[in-house]
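Exercise 7. Given the components listed, write out the predicted structure of the assembled complex. Treat all entries as one system.
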Amino acid sequence: MTLWLRGWGTALRRDKYLYLLMMPGLLFFLIFKYGPMWGLSLAFQNYSPFLGFWKSEWVGFKYFSDFLTNPDFFKLLRNTLAISFLNILFFFPAPIILALMLNEVRRVRFKKFVQTAIYLPHFVSWVVIAGICFILLSKSSGIVNGLIVDAGGTKIDFLTNANTFWLLLTSQSIWKDAGYGTIIFLAALTSINPEQYEAAQIDGASRWNQLIHITLPGIKSTIVVLLILRLGTVMDVGFEQVYLMSSAPVESIGDVFDTYAYRVGVQQGRFSFAVAAGMFKSIVGFIMVVAANRIAKKMGEEGVY
Amino acid sequence: MDRSSKWLDVFIYTALFLFSLSTVLPFIYITIVSFTEPHEFISTPVMLFPKTWSLASYRYIMSNNSFMNSFFITALLTIVGTVGALLVTSGLAYGLSRKRLKGRNFILTSILFTMLFNPGIMPNYLLIRNLGLLNSFWALVLPGLATAFYVLLMKSFFQDVPAELEESGKMDGCSDVGIFFRIILPISLPVIAAFSLFYGVAYWNTYFNGVLYINKDTLRPLQVVLQQMLAASAAPPDEASGIVIPAETVKMAAVVLAAVPIVMVYPFLQKYFVKGLTLGSVKG
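Answer.
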């Protein structure tokens, strides 16, 4: 014990300025990332803001069983998983395809133009994106429906159609972030040895063959790691996006764990129930990420940690 | 080049061009229409180019006190937040990049854990409430001062800085703080530029924290006010002139103002953020 203390004593004296530099960051993580963990205990209490943490009654897993037997639970689970799986099916491959196409572009200026253009929406807020969608796709005054009518078609209800709401979210995600997602794959593509392509060309391999036998295997490990991580975050669908795009006609289809916890907790003041609902999501999410990372490592990839 | 290869190129260039248009055209369209004479838009909503240019929508927005107020709040938030976040993040990342540091692995693991487990909206809300920060400017600044992922990225950048630089600083009698501010930060400017963009964008786009923590008109961030404007069905009549400004062009002008600072800054920082993002993240 004394040895351990002495070890720390020397380290602190030697690196006191380093620890000083790190202090604000350490305090940040302690207060703003670990501080909220304390709030999780509310899920096991019949918490009343008037009685406070110390006087509120402990109720064990009551709120968890309330939530899991609540008819809303299955609706939330279905919506969350549906949005997530549509994203994995369509949104996940989009940046890979874009990066592969960009990789074939030899005209530097064209490539620069495309990259500048497709990264752009990533930096704009969800409020702006949702606003643009409402303005362009609105049934009454949107230009898209205006053009459809001019071309002799009938107006399409893009924004409040419960049948296509999930697809609307997926298309929006692709539009906003697929371009930005190419960065990581383009970086992986540059690490492929160009000699492989030269050798293949001498052997008379077509561009398609080069894609199948050199390019795809070259970025396979990046794809696998990102896919597994994506699978690990199935419980997380973009909260702001869903919250902003939701409207009364699509509520039954667009309500997910986070929007539910917000509504029940902050708006209705049912703190304990909302903490339990949010915590259910966090725990499942945590298990998924850890499992996904383990699978990545089993497959011989590096994983994220 | 054989024929199928040529067609492949035609396909690739066309597809990429169309996708680029789809990301850029909505911004251009909305900008153009926001400068249209408002009544022209009512009579012909489907148009690509206005006959009469007008600043009416912008004048209307600029005379809207809550919009302008939120614009300045957000500008201040972005400056204070970005500077703060850079100091907090880089200090922590630099310490963690020194392998000799005692407790390094414990701290790294603790930071990583926060990336894997997020307690959720309610516990965060309760924390801010218990700290007495509800309805304060700091409720918008403080929770964004560090992002675990950026700390780890920056740490891997500092790790690659040659050790000789640190040693030469030591020989000249610099403390670790001196080395950090006089040697490490100046040579890391491109990376600092990348992270300023990431943090700056995050602060400028602050929305949900504004909804969650702020319930006071004078403190509402821009994105929250913008969302309220977009949700409102029609603008109230302009009292001075008695003209009813059509909501759509006003909404477009508001969207343009909320997006302009980012659209202006981002192309200049593009080459840096690509570097910042791919730091140590390319495997295989």
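Discussion: Strands of chain A lie at 45-46, 57-58. The mean pLDDT of chain A is 91.
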